[in-house]
């Protein structure tokens, strides 16, 4: 396999993986498919009741394969270009090249397209024919589809999902238009080159499907359909650029993660399209029986969200709005379990009601409710966007989560502390435990944030929020100086995945460096090596924090057993089981780069930094860290940190910033200018003495 001639963002192979699940995906915020597959998915379109809710399979005209009739074993290549957001299949035959290009349009989010180009390479004048092999049938096991009249040369079907998620609830409608696909394409004897374009538009209304298809046709007629997609995608990649000087495999992993995760977020110019969350396997996966049915977990809020927030806060806001839209379902979940406020589901689809097929997780893995609120807190600390909370439903969610935690706690007379009993921690090898350290720490942080937010909004603070935050038990072993995972945990007991280590990051639960080290030492050897991919990234971040660079590198190295070739598709577990295109693992990996190597930590009034690299990395460049309305370009080497403001928001106006070193030295950060100082700890904050 050749990898794009050393370009870390281009993955090329001469053969496809034997397991079709490991084929790359082409996705935008509303549509997604796996290449060469005969189904696609539309965001928010689920069929099935409760635990059977799954992404509805929409028949896909995009899943065809080219073949060269008569050619004996022609040279073929398959390329995923993460810079252009395009997959390409090329057949090289004597006398001609045939190229099939597939993409999900990044700005026209209801449109996917492919093209086939035949180019003559010699002076021959005979016709050249390429076959198009398609499994497409305009039927679905999840949708009742009806054909409608053709539109501008496109075929048309429409219909509703078969079973609503909740009884009496809505059944989403799908409208699809597609360019008819012939069985073969022929380049005439007098032609040197020709390109055929095929469009597929999918939307929730006939009007939107037709509008998108017409827009695509107009761009195609002008020869700029693919170019308009590449321009929009490249702008996103530029604005979220992260570059490393280090081993090629690490750089390839970085660009693969950025491609798949950024494909899942909404583009900057589609504010009218509601966002439907990010599932562990992404929009392209999640049919019944695979990839957790396309449900949304804490994976979105804890593992993917922090990266999106630093690079692209507008998309982070859309993720939070998905949670706000499903708040009523979360309230119902709490009521049904006998609690107040809102309990977010362990697995969420369109309504916020619990859709986990196994009751134990929905009943016990309640930390997800606090995980959702941490994402809101990180967003607020990074943006100071009070509008989300005052006008757009954010405060109602914060208050509902605080009320839930208060109602979920019980007072222990013996310990004179509040307990949370009968839960499953992130470590799913244990259930019905009392006082999960992670769950209780998340609950405390939820209540502290709710208190701070109420004060910022000039709202009254219920006394019980502060009282319970102060008095909730977070288990701690005074003798061994570490956090037991829960009451009664015995050192050495096997653990499924990152759990207590999350107290250090992302929770930043108060503890000494000694305790942080002890937690890492205690849980690293007992964590299941076959556990899910995101685990090792959090051990890596912990060791980077303690400047144990080789230990961090060895933990990061474990991630690579979850990255498959040739298209850098992650699998949840190193044996290939679980979700594929595992965005959760990619999110953890990106956090090692964006938070581990940089030492970035989001606090209430500062963005801390304290860089640390393993030996084989010499430089990290991040084009656009977003903080308080400013875009910061940051370059870090072992010797020097260079940073500067490249852009500032005008509405609302950005806060002027300064960098402060631990030594007390201050560096004003002016737009268009950069400052540099020796690599070491410090922070970025609002400048107390400047106005823009």
Protein architecture, described:
The protein contains 16 helices and 30 strands. With about 700 residues, the protein is an alpha+beta fold. Among the domains are: about 230 residues, Glycoside hydrolase, family 65, N-terminal domain (Beta-galactosidase, Chain A, domain 5, Distorted Sandwich); about 70 residues, no CATH class. α4 packs parallel to α8 and α14 packs parallel to α16. The N and C termini lie far apart (about 50 Å). InterPro entries: 6-hairpin_glycosidase_sf, 6hp_glycosidase-like_sf, Glyco_hydro_65_C, Glyco_hydro_65_M. This is Protein-glucosylgalactosylhydroxylysine glucosidase. Its EC number is 3.2.1.107. It catalyses: (5R)-5-O-[alpha-D-glucosyl-(1->2)-beta-D-galactosyl]-5-hydroxy-L-lysyl-[collagen] + H2O = (5R)-5-O-(beta-D-galactosyl)-5-hydroxy-L-lysyl-[collagen] + D-glucose.
Task: Describe the secondary structure blueprint for this structure.
Blueprint lengths: L9 E4 L11 E3 L3 E4 L4 E4 L3 E2 L6 E2 L2 E2 L5 E3 L7 E7 L4 E8 L2 E9 L6 E10 L7 E6 L9 E9 L2 E8 L11 E6 L5 E4 L5 E11 L2 H16 L3 H15 L2 E4 L2 H16 L34 H14 L1 H13 L1 H10 L22 H6 L2 H17 L2 H5 L3 H15 L1 E3 L4 E3 L17 H20 L6 H9 L41 H11 L11 H11 L3 H10 L24 H15 L3 E2 L3 E4 L9 E9 L2 E8 L2 E9 L8 E5 L4 E4 L4 E5 L3 E5 L6
Antiparallel strand pairs: 1-9, 2-3, 3-4, 4-7, 5-6, 8-13, 9-10, 10-11, 11-12, 12-18, 13-17, 14-15, 15-16, 16-18, 19-24, 20-21, 22-23, 23-30, 24-25, 25-26, 26-29, 27-28, 27-30
Helix pairs in contact: 3-16, 4-5, 4-8, 4-16, 5-8, 8-10, 8-11, 10-11, 11-12, 14-15, 14-16
Keywords: Glycosidase, Hydrolase
Enzyme class: hydrolase
Protein name: Protein-glucosylgalactosylhydroxylysine glucosidase
């Amino acid at each position: 396999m050749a990898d794009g001639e050393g370009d870390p963002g281009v993955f090329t192979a001469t053969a496809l993986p034997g397991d079709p699940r490991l084929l790359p995906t082409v996705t935008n915020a509303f549509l997604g498919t796996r290449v060469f597959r005969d189904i696609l998915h539309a965001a928010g379109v689920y069929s099935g009741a409760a635990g059977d809710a799954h992404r509805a399979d929409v028949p896909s005209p995009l899943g065809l394969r080219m073949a060269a009739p008569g050619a004996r074993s022609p040279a073929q290549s398959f390329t995923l270009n993460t810079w252009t957001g395009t997959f390409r299949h090329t057949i090289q035959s004597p006398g001609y090249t045939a190229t099939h290009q597939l993409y999900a349009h990044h700005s026209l989010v209801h449109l996917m397209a492919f093209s086939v180009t035949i180019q003559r390479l010699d002076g021959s004048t005979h016709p050249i024919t390429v076959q198009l092999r398609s499994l497409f049938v305009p039927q679905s096991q999840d949708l009742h589809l009806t054909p409608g009249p053709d539109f501008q040369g496109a075929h048309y079907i429409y219909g509703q999902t078969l079973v609503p998620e909740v009884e009496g609830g809505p059944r989403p409608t799908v409208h699809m238009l597609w360019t008819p696909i012939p069985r073969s394409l022929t380049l005439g004897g007098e032609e040197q080159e020709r390109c055929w374009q095929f469009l597929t538009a999918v939307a929730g209304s006939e009007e939107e499907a037709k509008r998108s298809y017409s827009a695509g046709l107009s761009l195609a007629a002008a020869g700029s359909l693919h170019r308009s997609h590449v321009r929009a995608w490249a702008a996103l990649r530029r604005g979220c650029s992260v570059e490393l000087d280090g081993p090629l495999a690490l750089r390839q992993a970085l660009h693969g993660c950025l491609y798949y995760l950024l494909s899942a977020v909404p583009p900057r110019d589609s504010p009218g399209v509601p966002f439907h969350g990010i599932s562990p396997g992404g929009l392209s996966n999640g049919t019944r029986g695979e990839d957790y049915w396309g449900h949304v977990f804490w994976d979105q809020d804890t593992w993917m969200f922090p990266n999106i927030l630093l690079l692209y806060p507008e998309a982070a806001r859309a993720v939070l709005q998905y949670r706000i839209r499903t708040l009523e379902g979360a309230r119902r979940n709490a009521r049904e379990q006998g609690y107040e406020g809102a309990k977010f589901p362990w697995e969420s689809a369109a309504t916020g009601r619990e859709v986990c097929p196994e009751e134990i997780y929905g009943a016990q893995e309640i930390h997800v409710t606090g995980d959702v609120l941490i994402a809101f807190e990180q967003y607020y600390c990074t943006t100071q966007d009070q509008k989300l909370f005052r006008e757009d439903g954010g405060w109602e969610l914060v208050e509902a989560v605080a009320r839930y935690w208060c109602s979920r706690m019980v007072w222990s007379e013996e310990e004179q502390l509040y307990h949370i009993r009968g839960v499953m921690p992130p470590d799913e090898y244990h259930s019905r435990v009392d006082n999960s350290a992670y769950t209780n720490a998340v609950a405390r942080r939820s209540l502290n944030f709710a208190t701070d937010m109420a004060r910022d909004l000039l709202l009254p603070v219920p006394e019980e929020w502060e009282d319970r935050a102060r008095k909730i038990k977070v288990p701690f072993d005074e003798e061994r100086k570490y956090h037991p995972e829960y009451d009664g945990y015995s050192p050495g007991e096997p653990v499924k995945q990152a759990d207590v280590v999350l107290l250090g990051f992302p929770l930043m639960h108060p503890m000494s460096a000694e305790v942080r080290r002890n937690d890492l030492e205690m849980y690293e050897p007992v964590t299941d090596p076959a556990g899910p991919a995101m685990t090792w990234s959090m051990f890596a971040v912990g060791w980077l924090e303690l400047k144990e660079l080789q230990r961090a590198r060895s933990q990061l190295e474990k991630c690579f057993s979850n990255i498959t070739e040739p298209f850098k598709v992650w699998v949840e577990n190193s044996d290939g089981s679980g979700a594929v295109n595992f965005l959760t693992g990619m999110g953890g990996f990106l956090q090692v780069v964006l938070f581990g190597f940089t030492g970035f930590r989001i606090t209430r009034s500062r963005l801390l930094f304290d860089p640390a690299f393993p030996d084989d990395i010499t430089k990290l460049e991040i084009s656009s860290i977003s903080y308080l309305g400013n875009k910061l370009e940051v370059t870090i080497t072992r010797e020097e940190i260079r940073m500067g403001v490249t852009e500032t928001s005008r509405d609302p106006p950005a806060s002027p910033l300064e960098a402060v070193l631990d030594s007390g030295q201050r560096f004003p950060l002016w737009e268009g200018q950069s400052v540099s100082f020796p690599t070491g700890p410090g922070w970025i904050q609002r400048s107390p003495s400047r106005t823009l």
